[in-house]
Amino acid sequence: MIAVANRKGRVGKAATVIDLASALALLDHPTLVLDPQGSATTGHPA
User: Whole-model pTM?
Assistant: First the structure.
């Protein structure tokens, strides 16, 4: 489990998570992104 957190907003947490999950998926690691605010899908439609 990897958690990405920061108390300040707009610091790139969602972009970091998407890039990390994508890289792990390309290496055939199972990935699951939990995004309670929906920020990860704002610029990355599923």
Answer: 0.74
